Amino acid sequence: MRPIRPLCCFVAAVLAAIAGCSHPVKTAPEMDASELLALFQERQHVDAKNFVEMDLGRFRVTHKLASGEGQLYVQFHLFGILPQQRQTRLTQLWPQYEKRVRDAVLSLTQRTETEHLSDPSLTFFKEEVAATVNRVLQERLLVDVAFSDFSTDREAGVPWSVPAGESKPAGGGHGGGHGH
User: Is the pTM here over 0.85, yes or no?
Assistant: First the structure.
């Protein structure tokens, strides 16, 4: 028979994760087992109908390679994945936090190990981006992120890879004219 107390803690963690309570957001290594399980279960349902994508902007970042091997130019279009019921809250917070989120994502991309940026699944980087955005927002609103047009190039002059009909963002390639 399992003890009641740990089960209550687990249920509380799951309910907190689902409700999107505004406790400080932790990175994966800082979470205990019940928090990780709750986050994992929440992400398992990302493809459900009640999840939406929110455009978080285009990014173009210079990433220095280890041991002076030059730089990598990383570009992507970032989308937050969140439960539909949290979309209104994110829409309310976004104008206030957009520049801080952009700065945090740019900084994260610059300091992430090259192997994580080169991983075809981008699993680690996606988790870190979602945690970073939630940390800046001071609420766990995103359950995941998605990238479109993710690329890494060694040449600075590589143009934005955008679908036909879209144009390059204003502001020197950092998207939305916000520059950095």
Answer: no
